[in-house]
Amino acid sequence: MLRLEKRPSPSKAWNYATPVVAVLLTMIAGGILFTILGKNPFEAIKLIFWDPLFSEQFAAYSRPQLLVKAGPLILIAVGLSIGFRAGIWNIGAEGQYIVGALCAAAVALAFYPAESVLVFPLMILAGALGGWAWAMIPAILRTKFNTNEILVSLLLVYVAEKLLAAAATGFMRNPQGAGFPGSRNINQYASAANHEIFAGTGLHWGGVAAFIAVLFTYVMLQRHILGFQVQLAGQAPRAARFAGVAPARLVLMCMGISGAFAGMAGMFELAGPARLISIDFNAGYGFTAIIVAFLGRLNPIGIVLAGLLLALTYIGGELAQFMLNLPAAAIQVFQGMLLFFLLALDVLSNYRVRLFLPQRATTENV
Amino acid sequence: MTTPLLSLQGLTKVYPGVVANKDVTFDIGEGEVHALLGENGAGKSTLVKAIYGLIRPNEGTMLWRGQPYAPNAPAQARATGVAMVFQHFSLFDAMDVAENVALGMDNPPPIRELAARITEVSNNYGLPLDPSRMVGDLSAGERQRVEIIRCLLQNPQLLIMDEPTSVLTPQEVEILFRTLRQLRAEGRSILYISHKLEEIRSLCENATVLRLGKVVGRADPRQESARSLAEMMVGQSLHTPSRPAAQPGKMLLQVTDLSVASPSQFGTSLKGVSLSVRAGEILGIGGVAGNGQDELLGALSGEIRAPAEAVRMAGEPVGHYGPNARRAMGLLCAPEERLGHAAAPDMSLTENALLTGAWREKLVTRGFVSWGKAKGFAEKVIERFDVRTPGPWVAARALSGGNLQKFVIGREILQRPSVLVVNQPTWGVDASAAASIRQALLDLAQAGAAVVVISQDLDEILEVADNFAALNGGRLSAPRPVQGLTMDQIGLMLGGAETGETDVAA
């Protein structure tokens, strides 16, 4: 029989070990899944985790992709991690990402074709504001009417997707696009384009923004009283109120920061790799970032590593898709399993598992 | 005399470091309502847990109608004929009444049959309850009925009720008492735990009084006065404060007609509370748990906002201020609940030192935390208040209750408060730690602070306080000097007689 015993204080060792064990378990369970699908599991795992970085055939293309994909994941995930620490669950980063991109596109298209150094910074600002405003909807509904921010923020993703479709096929459609859906190519508008900073690295301004966001979050959580209040509110809400933390203000702040970061990520993606507003502009970064945040233990440094790992599964997954004909859904299952194992293993940092033999029933029933 | 229903003979229960029950002996007769009286920590709960099979006594025996009775589990106690209504309900809000009742039964019948029986029992005993209603929609009194009916369905011979009236309105108390009298008329026995002396006098024919785990008295409550029962509960002698009466100083804390709604559903709202404390003075506030103590602390700490004029610090209105603005003015508080309210369980002592010390101890400059200073402050608290812990990096939840309490009180006292409000400063704390905390409170007052001690421990209040007031149903009696106060008066104040409202008034 198994029994869980609460530890007197949380285990530091397990706190760091769980992400690694979760990745290993995901590889094993994923391997079983791929076997059932009739693929060679070792080949599939190697294609996902090894080949994008080290195979001569694919690395030249795949390696820069790592930073391209990790950038938005990390930027969104560090923003989410602040709220998650406070027990404020913004699940709608995907929607804030879309709205941020739409706002940035609106700025770019308004200036087009005028060239100015102001366009790019204004787009960043617009992206951040758009994401922030979209996140304020669940935040204000929660503080004013006590609605559940998980549901509201999630459902607003679908609203944002409708807005995106309307923009791509309607009000933002390229007038010179021969009737095809999609906006002008912002990547070809010099003032607005988000190019690689060093050729061949995949690093664009979004990566720089992610780096700054990680630093910002690290300093805030470790050194600033706001970071302390965020953690206090998450761990002991009553003690937080006693310490003078106003819950409503905290909700607005955490939702605002995560929304702004997600909006910025949308902006960098729009002006860079995505190039334009299209119906399928969003690629699920906002949802995957939730996995990244938890896999990184809500710790900024951990999130950088987790972001790189999840970016790898994206790239490796695509590779496995066309090399092995794996269905796209199999890769999503794979990412989902990662979160599942991680959350399941989390119990080990606070509890220890004890094996015991069931006692003889006779002594119990005198 | 006939064989008693249940006979306890020399029950002793020892926990590490604490003797919860020592040689407890008494009988409960058939058809008797027996009161178990005692202050918090007197060992009442431990005793009834032993009867209900939740814990096993170290020594002593129990006899059920003359036969040995040693339940290993509540199921066995229930099979014998013992049922218990707990002080805290164990119900699921999202399920209906019948489903909740079924969950607590050993062999529940089909739900439709059960619903019919619930209706039948509730009609028979005058406890109106619709089995198809959601528990989340029920009042506290109705929830208690669910628990009582769950017990009655098992047809018990002995019903144990732990503080049943603490969450009831006066009208609900009347309904409950009618039911209990009907049960007695049917020949069932009831073990009734309460500190409300008037209730016990009107309901019970026998009382056993516990103090510090021992039986210190037996009485027929109908023949006793509230005063004599209270004296048995708290002991005969009144402690005289050992320090010389200080000259009353400047008026530091003044609360005027403070009425605030409780943030919690089962809380008690404060109704027109007024009090004043001068420099060098300790005001003790007594009363049974759940009569507004948490709310009073919250309203003084700033967690519950009030009209500006309702709370004044040295003449300045502060009722509308939050906790940190009040701290800045020197009004500090130590709540009752150590883990989760006064301290964050999973955070280190350094982080917990920052929790209230951030501004007053200047641990934060321009928003940035100086962890070195925070650690220094935590170390100072640990050293000055003799907190036994390996160091300030230890999580709060790893400390024993007494050590964490010393840390929490020390954290506030070292911030040199001009007004300190503490709720249950020595609850669950061993005797030597309790003594050092009380001494620290006396020293603080001597140094010119105004101190409010909210406590359910009358001995404690009488030891440290200059003035005594009682909190009852959210109302505070007029404070009286402790010196010259008789037990009779204390009993009446605690019972709410002097606040113009008694429990059975309605």
Walkthrough of the structure:
The complex is a heterodimer of chains A (366) and B (506). Chain A has helices spanning 12-36, 41-49, 51-54, 59-85, 93-111, 119-145, 149-171, 205-223, 225-235, 237-242, 247-271, 285-295, 300-324, 328-345, 347-350, 361-364; strands at 2-6, 351-355. Chain A has 366 residues and is mainly α. Chain A has a single domain (40-325), classed as Orthogonal Bundle (ABC transporter involved in vitamin B12 uptake, BtuC), CATH 1.10.3470. A two-stranded antiparallel sheet of chain A has the order 1-2. The model of chain A is unreliable at 360-366 (pLDDT under 50). Chain B has two domains: 6-234, Rossmann fold (3-Layer(aba) Sandwich); 251-499, P-loop containing nucleotide triphosphate hydrolases (Rossmann fold, 3-Layer(aba) Sandwich), CATH 3.40.50. Helices cover 32% and strands 23% of the residues of chain B. Chain B has helices spanning 44-51, 74-80, 97-103, 111-124, 140-152, 170-185, 197-203, 226-234, 293-301, 323-329, 349-357, 371-384, 401-413, 431-446, 458-464, 487-494, and strands at residues 6-15, 18-28, 33-37, 59-64, 67-68, 82-85, 158-162, 189-193, 206-211, 214-219, 251-260, 270-278, 282-286, 311-313, 316-317, 331-334, 364-365, 368-369, 419-423, 450-454, 467-472, 475-476, 480-481. In chain B, strands 13, 16, 19, 20, 21, 22 and 23 form a seven-stranded mixed β-sheet that branches. A six-stranded mixed β-sheet of chain B has the order 6-7-8-3-9-10, with helices on both faces. In chain B, helix 3 packs across helix 4 (111-124), helix 3 crosses helix 5 (140-152) and helix 13 (401-413) packs parallel to helix 14 (431-446). The A-B interface holds A 8-10, 223-226, 228, 231-232, 235-236, 238-244, 246, 364-366 and B 70, 72-73, 301-303, 322-324, 327, 333, 335, 337, 340-347, 351, 354-356, 358, 364, 367-369, 371, 394-395, 397-398.
